[in-house]
Specification:
27% helix, four-stranded antiparallel sheet, single chain, 4 strands, alpha+beta, 2 helices, Alpha-Beta Plaits
């Protein structure tokens, strides 16, 4: 990705940044996502996670609020979450 000058970034660093992650409902889904997130934000804990099942219960939506310190950190986190086999969507 091209570097975006700090003056043009819509995000001020550091800041709390919510990321939505959706995947099939599975007992290991939330703990697995927490593991991935902690690699990129060591301050993350389960108190910063919200979980919601889909209407039929087939999928679970998670909102993880990370402490974003750089564009590179967020890009790396999005890349790893998007590539994870348990994840269907990252927003």
């Amino acid at each position: 990705m091209a570097d975006i000058p700090r003056a043009e970034s819509l995000i001020e660093y550091p800041s709390d940044f919510p990321i939505k992650v959706m995947g099939p409902t599975h007992i290991d889904f939330a703990p697995t996502i927490v593991e991935v997130v902690v690699k990129h934000d060591p301050t993350f804990h389960e108190g910063k996670l919200e979980a919601r099942p889909s209407a039929k219960g087939n999928y679970t939506g998670l909102t993880v609020t990370v402490r974003a310190v750089s564009r590179e950190q967020l890009d790396a986190l999005y890349t790893e979450l998007s590539a994870h086999p348990m994840v269907k969507i990252v927003m």
